[in-house]
Amino acid sequence: MKSFDYVQASQPADALRLIGAAPSSRFIAGGTNLVDLIKYEVENPGTLVDISQLPLTKIEKTATGIRIGALARNSDVAANKLIASQFPLLSEALLAGASPQLRNMATMGGNLLQRTRCNYFYDPSQPCNKRAPGSGCGAIGGYNRIHAILGASPQCIATNPSDMNVALSALDAVVQISGPNGNRSVPVIDFHRLPGDTPQKDSVLEPDELIVAIDLPTPKNAGKSHYLKVRDRASYAFAIISVAARLAVDGGVIREARLALGGVAHKPWRLVAVENQLIGKPATDATFQAAARQLLAGAQPHEHNAFKIKLAQSAIVRALQTVA
Amino acid sequence: MAKKLIGDPIDRIDGTQKVTGSARYSADVKRPGLVHGVLVMSTVANGTIQTLDTTETLRLPGILAVMSHTNAPKLGGMDKNKSGETASDRVLHVFQDNLVHYNNQPIAMVIADTFEQAVEGASLVRVTYATEPVKPGLPTSTDKPLTPPRLPRVDDQVDTTRGDVKKGMAGAASTLEATYKTPTQFHNALEPHAVLSFWEGDKLTMYTTTQGISGYQKRVAELFGMPKENVRVITQYLGGGFGSKGTTFSQAMLGPMAAKLVGKPVKLVLKREHMFGMVGSRSATVQTMNVGATADGQLTAMTHDTLAQTSAFDEFMEPAGTITRMLYACPNLATTHKFIKANVGSTSPMRAPGEAPGVFALECAIDEMADKLKIDPLQFRLKNYAEEDPHRNRPFSSKSLRECYQQGADQFGWSKRAKQPRATRDGNYLVGMGMATTVYPVNRGESTAMVRLNTDGTVRLETGTQDLGTGTFTIMNQLAAEVLGLSPDQVTLGAGDSKYPEAVGSGGSRTTVTTGSAVTQAAQEVLKKAKKMAYSDKKSPLYAVAEAEIEAKNGRLESKSDPKKGESFTSLLKRNGNKPIEATTLSKSGAEKETHSMSAFGAIFVEVRVDEALGEVRISRMLGNIAAGKIVNAKTAKSQILGGMVWGVSMALHEYAALDTRNARIMNPNLAEYHVPVNADIRDIDAIFIDEADETVNPAGVKGIGEIGIVGTVSAIANAIYHATGKRHYDLPITVEKLIG
């Protein structure tokens, strides 16, 4: 690994100033992903700006819902009573991820920015447009079992590995960002991006911006929710497919629906049109199967991941059955 | 303190050091002036190195040298670098030429003052290659299979036939042909391979990670072309090996070569991703089974044809067919072994080499045949029970498989198993039960042990064995203590260092069998001398008592019929010159090797829950019933069986090398993507030993237990999945995509 400088910020304004001051700087909080990436020589930061001491760890009620500080630990959020009672979907997704040791370190903001597990991204001897723009995509035509079936591009078929992001997407969460030019709010559904021609950009966050909080708006109609994760082993494995489902059913009829898929695309996969079509429909297997087909419409498999199409549809139906 | 008996569940003697972190593993050892080596690996699978540019590396601070084929010390014994007759001698890559035979092969080493500098330096070495087309491994290879010159165990024939297979098949009411595939697997001991090497003149010392100190010492000396007395090898603690530290692989030479080059002690620790190629692998296999049986369930014929892979430069053959030769009383049988050569790192022994993939094929085929004949799979096995070894035509030294079947079936509730597959459902889960026979041969090598009875009544035991983490050091003391009627804590052990008497490598479940026997025999020799001293000494209460009438108990020699008549070792020795009694014994197989067949046997029972829509399989219950001679330590022995069974789960459901076939590069070389099971994958797991006394097998009366746990577990799981779902799986591992298919 390359030698790097290390500085610590005590307030968000310091952090923004420090990140702007040195080129090739990276924020570090829990370090559960970044340290690995440095060891693998995927990331080679010149300076690490430690933000772990910033006062951004609170979980508090707001007029419209709950605000979670960007530096709240995944384990603390999962165990928080407000979250567990009002947004159990988030607790479930957080607890489905990683291991207790990692969740004790990982922060909410860091998890939002968790990078792909694409095998080629992690191997600097191999081409990867996300790691080294213009070098090509090793996964296309290579080993691509864990890769995207939706929303990919000829430049990149990586997936977003986070469980939390899938739940946040289904919860209509909003990311609060501070930057050199002030603050802005971005819905999670727009925060992560599809790879297109610039797969090196996982999200719309600019390098000199800092995530300060995540807002969870109280849903009109909470209904029931479930996070379903399919993985190769029972714990400590990334999702092959995951589903964050939220359904409000009244008298057998669907009143509100949210459906986000993980493990299939460069971002949590949500189609608002499919959710809207569910409204007013009976909460039956036929309805769920139709939604599953629509959500996977246009899926493009690669050599090793065609099974994900059928698996994703089964997982969607199962998740919806669970919350119906 | 109460005397601890043989078989007691005694805590391991190094347990406290290990759990408190005070145990110094080889990578933890420090030395004044120590510098660090980091390997540079090839990124192509076949070709030659054209240029190796170290300009940027050498510009960094702290870099001492970049060792490659351009400047590596030449090795005097390089002509010995060939495929050996034993499984542990493999061809090494020690920078003597510019050839690349597989992707992720070591091609250079950066040596620097700090580890971090060496890592950065390694990332800046620029290499160009002239590449050749990649020769792929299994199952894609279309190369003509070759017959290997030998199997790893020299006694095993490559191909065998008995009876008349054609006739046997013709006489069968039912026949079955099935092809089974197993993937390349990597050992992945938790502790990475490490070696700290330093030279003092022409004397070399290595703190290293080896399963075989004595073999390692010889091999390193041989390749350097120097006497083995000049090489000292020390391995005080090992964090597992599973075979990958049994073979002396390239790092064993590269470390001391670098130390020679820079004239300083060099520490070389492999990164996890380096452990996917240069330190061996379990070969992928394609195995075809043919089975014929009469309507009432007598096997009439079997064939087992194994195709495995080996590297472009070596000749290791995964011996998958050897158990098929001896497990069932089948009169007509043929087995063959062939391999293809491919651009892969050397294949090599990995926990139950041959037996694990081979018995997967065999026991799945047996299960399928039983199902075809509508006979309970356990009954089918009993119908074909081999009372004698049908391959060697010899009696077994002991075989308690029938008892394992019976007790296992009772404890597991086998009688409650549904007759039909796909008959038990619990919510979203299909539930199934499967079983398989497990077996592992007794392999015995040669070991020497020294036992010294001190005048204070304590015992010093010395033998150049190593402790893989299995508890070897603990049970060696127990064995010596048992013979001399002492408590194990009265024995101190010198081991893990080549300065002690030569002992066998810890592979093939050989250690307790071989070194344990040497310890037992040396202790028996000491006891004999002590008894003689007593019955020859007029001042001893045991004067003129018959030797057979004297026994050792609680630090004393006493008369069996009159225990009050006797004296302590201390008083006996004090009176007789106040000198210790010592014996050094070389132990090896005797006539039993020619007169008997020797194996441990067992039965594995598994219950699985399969969520077919989501492709999930979880082990809800798993039980191993094992008969393996005398069990020296109930605690460490049980851990061996449980660990082996977990390995079986891993092989059945998880492990495989994810290969990019374009460049034969392994794309999951880390423990996040190369999966082994976690606790949550297995709910209930238990192992029970069946009492078995065997006075023929060896002086210690033990059979190896390090590998038998995995052997039958793989097929028991596949058979349970069949019983749950009604679908057979022939291709490991059985992952999500295969279960939803």
From TrEMBL, chain A:
The keyword Signal does not apply. Pfam families: CO_deh_flav_C, FAD_binding_5. Keywords: FAD, Flavoprotein. InterPro entries: CO_DH_flav_C, CO_DH_flav_C_dom_sf, Diverse_Substr_Oxidored, FAD-bd_PCMH, FAD-bd_PCMH-like_sf, FAD-bd_PCMH_sub1, FAD-bd_PCMH_sub2, Mopterin_DH_FAD-bd. Residues 1-221 form the FAD-binding PCMH-type domain. The keyword Transferase does not apply. This is Xanthine dehydrogenase family protein subunit M. It comes from Fibrella forsythiae. The lineage of its organism: Bacteria, Pseudomonadati, Bacteroidota, Cytophagia, Cytophagales.
TrEMBL record, chain B:
Residues 20-133 form the Aldehyde oxidase/xanthine dehydrogenase a/b hammerhead domain. Residues 134-157 are annotated as: Disordered. Signal peptide: none annotated. PANTHER family: DEHYDROGENASE, XANTHINE DEHYDROGENASE. This is Xanthine dehydrogenase family protein molybdopterin-binding subunit.
